[in-house]
Design a protein that fits this description.
By secondary structure, the protein is mostly helical. It starts with a helix and ends in a 19-residue tail after the last helix.
């Protein structure tokens, strides 16, 4: 489950799906996983409310969107929360662009040890 969301994001962004919004699908999948875990684990629920980025890292092994503000609202009995999407969602945030690009980072090019000596 940890990396399934990230693999899905890459796959969805690299292939076209008629009528499907890959970010919306990914968001729904992540939200469902977070809610499922919060419903069955009181400590995780408290963490999700207090520090959503730490909860993401706990559940998925990483925080895929560290630069995005996340608000968690816990509904109370007799309440209903309606979340309206942003009016302009035409551009991916930089954090998601990095994740979706499939490119390499500078760190992956650094050699941490001397190269092996050629065999004679």
């Amino acid at each position: 489950m940890r990396f399934q969301l990230f693999n899905n994001l890459k796959r969805w962004l690299m292939t076209s799906q008629a009528g499907a919004d890959p970010l919306l699908q990914l968001r729904r999948q992540a939200e469902a996983a977070l809610v499922d875990r919060a419903q069955s684990d009181a400590a995780f629920r408290a963490l999700l409310v207090k520090d959503p980025h730490a909860a993401l890292k706990t559940l998925f092994g990483t925080d895929p969107i560290p630069g995005i503000a996340i608000k968690v609202v816990e509904e109370q009995p007799g309440e209903m929360t309606l979340v309206l999407p942003a009016a302009d969602q035409s551009e991916l945030p930089d954090d998601l662009l990095d994740l979706a690009s499939g490119g390499t980072t500078f760190a992956s090019m650094i050699i941490y040890d001397a190269p092996p000596k050629p065999k004679k």
